[in-house]
Amino acid sequence: MRKQQKGFSLIELLIVVAIILIIAAIAIPNLMRARMAANDSSAAGSEHTIIVGEVGFFGAYPSTGYATLAVLGNPGALSPCVPSATNGCLIDNNLATASVAPGKSGYLFNATPGTTGAAFNFYTQAWPISNVSGTRQYCAADDGVLRVTTGYGTGPGAYATCLTWTPSQN
Q1: Domain ranges in the chain?
Q2: How far is CA 118 from CA 1, 20, 48, 115, in A?
Q3: Which DSSP helix (H) or strand (E) runs through 113?
């Protein structure tokens, strides 16, 4: 009489591994698309936060005008943050320092204050760090409208260019 076999045969193990690989090949691209969509949504929300911060900063310090990202945040990482014309305390430091890698949620951000004649203005921009971290570029100007374009790039680069982008539908 033969001893009873325990365990799995090599063929059974190979079949299980093949099934797992097929499921992974189907699931991973969907996971990447979902992650990119989440990064896009986070960037749009962060752009809105920057717009609100710029408007609040201008309201608090009208003679200073609009601010850079660092000034909107807490550049010296003071605890507690004390608002001033050089230290707005209006956005969190993760966003205030997101102009350099690693950025925030796969995106880099920038806020550029400027003047046109006697009127103050600003524009802010967000762009994906790589072509796998996001699918859209965002910008907003002092009119408060979030604008968007598809694709990977480095943002509009200029106030006038931002104004030509398509307003976001969300």
Answers
A1: 36-167
A2: 100, 64, 26, 7
A3: strand 107-116
